[in-house]
Amino acid sequence: MRTMPFGAAAGLGAIIILATAPVWAHHSFSAEFDANKPVRLTGTVTQMEWINPHAWIHIDVKRPDGAVEKWMIEGGTPNTLLRRGFTKYSLLPGTVIVVDGYQAKDGSLKANGRDLTFPDGRKLFLGSSGTGAPKDGRDPTERKP
Amino acid sequence: MSHRFLVFAGVAALASLAAAPVAAQTATTAAKAAPKRGGTPPRTLWGEPDLQGVWDFATITPLERPRELAGKEILTEKEAAEFERETLERRNPDRRDGGAAADVGRAYNQFWWDYGTKVVGTNRTSLIVDPPDGRVPPLTPEAKERADARAQVLRRPPAGPEDRNLWERCILGGNTGPPMVSGPYNNVVQLFQTPGYVVILNEMINDARIVPLDGRPHLPPSIRQWRGDSRGRWEGDTLVVDTTNFRDETNFRGARATLHVVERFTRVDARTLLYEFTVDDPMTWTRPWSAAMPMRKAEGPMFEYACHEGNYGMVNILSGARAEEKAAEEAARKESK
Question: Is the ipTM of this complex over 0.90?
Fold first, then answer.
């Protein structure tokens, strides 16, 4: 085996973790949502807006006193979901979901859907990935072309 | 698919000849960057190489070589697999460690993201092939000053949308360029050809460039466009697209309106379109630089990305800034009492 100039493959991992490139996104989430206002909401979906640049899921959240709060939850682009085989029928009104996220800085009833699950802990959307471009088959979640 | 969102910009052709092409990459780096070429590409009815279709340019190979991999140009198969595993683990938005600020920054579950899972087929450690260190060349002193001033604006609460970047404002896609560089999602581009024109349509922000191939000169220098002014030509079987006339606000990695981009599209096999680009801006970088990235044929379709009409995020960013200012004022008032 040829000598690697920077050590064994195991060492590569540690090196790359230092080589950080931040996940960049359509916008700076820290400008919109407040890291000091984490929320965990269980609510019933009333509508999902399949819009760009970000999808919005509307949920009714029942407070302990019985009052219902209407929250809007921000997601990413629906284009990625469409590529993974989801449609506008994939999250129907009446579905109960759990939102773990951060509330909007302006204090309104909006949050980012940092972690979206069903009450039993399953992720809300799980599917194969990709645009149909052939990859090399090492990713078991790839959609077969 | 619906093309109702294609906006065909009017094109006025006047003086100003196409600027001289910027320095070509060295033969060795080009050879290393390029997948093996084989066969004759399919042809359009009028005899040009047929580049049409939807192409996927998602890759986790970074534009710049990570500093820790200095001197390491190509990964072995084993190293490439390890690089992919480590990168995906580090980027995985489903992880919740690192504190609240990092958690907010990761934004959403992995299922919303689509930045690719593989390095480029050449196993290069950077998309940049020239300079040979795989890094964007140093900024000029003036460009450093501009970058600092811009960073200062971004740190303060935005007074209005103009203080935020063009992607947040739905004006330009973060990965569409020119030049195109893989981003977090919508890494697909569709090429259309007619006799005399090529249209380059990116999914992100529905950016469409209509590129005339008839040798007409660039727009006069007084006309500046967000995505510049593109002119195309064939060099053998390679489509070369030369773009000038940018605006200062276009700000590709800190570049000014003097940015000059030359892109090269070559169909190297039925499923692969090699995309190469060279950028130059003497106001920004100390030398030109070049990158190469194979695109893969995708099934399509492209999806509409009507960004502006649904951009509640911008409203929330601005209302968040006003709320922060109000809170700071109240805190100051309490302190002065």
Answer: no
